[in-house]
């Protein structure tokens, strides 16, 4: 029987070559094999998740309702309106992806339904990019779903050899991982090779290596929401470089190992405990003092 299981980026490249598959198609086969369900069922589960992603983006840009901690809630809609203006610095795709990123993370902070991707804290990176890409570049659903599976393969490797938890590895593990997943997905969707997808993921992680987790009052609001938007920009930059043929000097698997080591070296005060970084600034302390008044 064919074996589609992979552990490393190197395995992915070998299997894609052996079976002439994209990373997304390989990830579907792997999941079907591991979960003992049909590829159709695996695919349909992702279609359902993609629908939740789209719904959360659409809901988020329509409302200015406060988040639970009242620190965010207005920026997704604001950015969405701005993204339609002739003033934007980038493109309709990029500015819309930023708007969706803020909107989805605000939805998360309102306890709305989102897709953790890989975590709830980083829910505004891959979904935002792919929903905006589908709309602005007329990409069909099959290609987007394939991209989501490509991103999932990257997330799986990071979760195995490093971490996708802010409490364990800092924000590099959450927004950094999400950014790497999105970068690989973008390359896959835009017709890049598996090797280019891995290069994009490696570049995206390297650019966020060491990023600390320092949420104000322990709420996934500040700096999380805007940091997700930063992860969107980073993913697009990494994907563009990889699609241009630029490679990562340090290969993907080695970058992931380094990421795991860096995560362990980040002090506990900067791993979701809200005891360091932005969480202990004067403004954060003032907010905590007054938040229940
Ligand atoms: S700062 Fe911490 S809580 Fe916020 S998104 Fe990053 S890892 Fe998650």
Compact description:
The protein is an all-alpha fold. It is built from 13 helices and no strands. The site of iron/sulfur cluster has 14 residues, from helix 9 and helix 11.
The count of helical stretches stands at: 13
How much strand content do the residues show?
A: under 5%
Q: Compounds present? A: iron/sulfur cluster
The class by helix and strand makeup works out as mainly alpha
Shape: globular
> Which spans have pLDDT < 50 for at least 5 consecutive residues?
none
Number of strands: 0
The helicity comes to: 55-70%
Q: What is the rounded distance between the termini?
A: 64 Å
Mean pLDDT: 98
Task: Characterise this structure.
There is one protein chain. The chain is an all-alpha fold and 293 residues long. It has helices at residues 9-19, 23-35, 39-60, 75-83, 92-109, 126-137, 141-161, 166-169, 171-189, 194-208, 224-243, 252-265, 282-290. Helix 2 crosses helix 3 (39-60) and helix 3 packs across helix 7 (141-161). The chain is globular, with a radius of gyration of 18 Å. The chain starts with 8 loop residues before the first helix and ends with a helix. 52% of the residues are buried. The model has no long low-confidence stretch (mean pLDDT 98). Iron/sulfur cluster is lined by residues 121-122, 166, 171, 174-175, 213-215, 220, 223-224, 227, 272.
